[in-house]
Amino acid sequence: MAYTTDGRVWPKSRCELSVTGPGWPAAWKNIAAVAMNTWNAAGANFSFASSSTASDHLAAYDLGRWNGWLAMTNTQPKTPRTQLTGGYVLINLHYEWDPKHPSVPHSATGGPYDLESVLVHELGHLLHLDDDATAKDVMQGTINPGVVRRGLGSDDVAGIKYLYPMLSGLEIADLAREALAIAYGRVVACEYAVVSLRLPQDENAPRLVFSVHRVRVDRAIKGVNGLNGEIDVLTLGGQSPTLSVHVESEAALAPNEEVVLFLSRDHQALGKNQPLTHWNLELNFAPLFYPLDKQSFSVFGGYQGKYSVYRRGDTAYVWRPGMHVSSDPGLSLDALESQIKKRL
Predict the structure, then answer these.
(1) Cα(169)–Cα(137) distance, integer angstroms
(2) Each residue of 174-198: pLDDT tens digit?
């Protein structure tokens, strides 16, 4: 995947924008809403919202040739790997736009630029992706008149999901409360099997595929019956050439890794409307069966975000979007357990 970011993120995974900013006409409000919804539908834990009282805004001015810039996005602060406090998007009315600005005539020749395409690109900067020369999607750094490039591609989606994974809005206390079990232990076997389930059960339905790992439980921080000894942990995304659904995930486990796992049995809940006693097992690509017993768990919620797995050793326990372990070591095990037990 090709995307570039310096790790800056919006707090609470949300950015509110005023579409009544300087020079922004009412005729362009719907285009702004469509561009925001393009990113909102990317499958990440992030949302743009329109608010008449927001200090962050969209604006439009005639700034002349302006080094050839069609638009600009400004965000604060400028320090990498920090939380953003503000920003705005500026469209340059020197250039011709489709649709036209209703009151400001353009000066440049060469044909109109697609406003929605450029606005989707600038909103990508606002949520904090950079231009990428190797990208094939909306975060390309240039666009020509008449080109329509409104839909997110795999590079764009990978970038926003990296910055705003599905569980990034959940604090430790939320995870502690919602998880069926929380285990501290060591990974003793990785990806020794792949299990899959079709919903619904027909050959045309996509398959959810999970890798199976074996974890030795050294201590149950929050327990259920049977949470002792060794358990099987399923993480979404398996290694098989026949996958129809594959999710790359920071929740993937590594051999001999010490981890704190927030666990659920959502893999059983997925089949709650079926007489589900086993899943298809693809071990060495041979059709076998994998039993779903009381010792089988999923990483919490099936979302597989970066908050699903807390790591020990050379990697910090608390992993946030854009976090660099060398400068932000996260919580110690004792501090993590203390926060968990506040909700137990």
Answers:
(1) 27
(2) 677 777 888 888 889 887 777 766 5
Name the pTM for this structure: 0.56
pLDDT digits (tens, 9 = 90+) for 88-104: 999 999 999 999 999 99
DSSP string over 273-290: TTT-SEEEEEETTEEEEE
Q: Where are the domains of the chain?
A: 11-163, 172-341
Name the residue among 267, 193, 180, 280 with its Cα closest to residue 224.
180
Topology adopted by domain 11-163? Collagenase (Catalytic Domain) (3.40.390)
Residue among 153, 78, 88 at smallest CA distance from 122: 88
Count how many Cα atoms sit within 13 Å of the Cα of residue 229 in the half-sphere of its side chain.
8
Residue 189, exposed/middle/buried by CB under 10 A (0-12, 13-18, 19+)?
middle
Please tell me whether the peptide bond between 200 and the residue prior to it is cis, using omega within 30 degrees of 0.
yes
With contact defined as beta carbons under 8 Å apart, do 256 and 186 qualify?
Answer: yes
Output the CA–CA distances (angstroms, integers) from residue 124 to 68, 163, 270, 285, in the order listed. Answer: 20, 11, 33, 40
Please say whether the beta carbons of 128 and 15 come within 8 A.
Answer: no
CA of residue 236 relative to chain centroid, distance: 14
Check: CB of residue 236 under 8 Å from CB of residue 302: yes
Half-sphere exposure of 263 (CA within 13 A, CB side): 27
Kindly provide the b/e burial profile for residues 16-39, where b requires at least 16 CB atoms within 10 angstroms of the residue's own CB: bbbbbbebbeeebeebbbebbebb
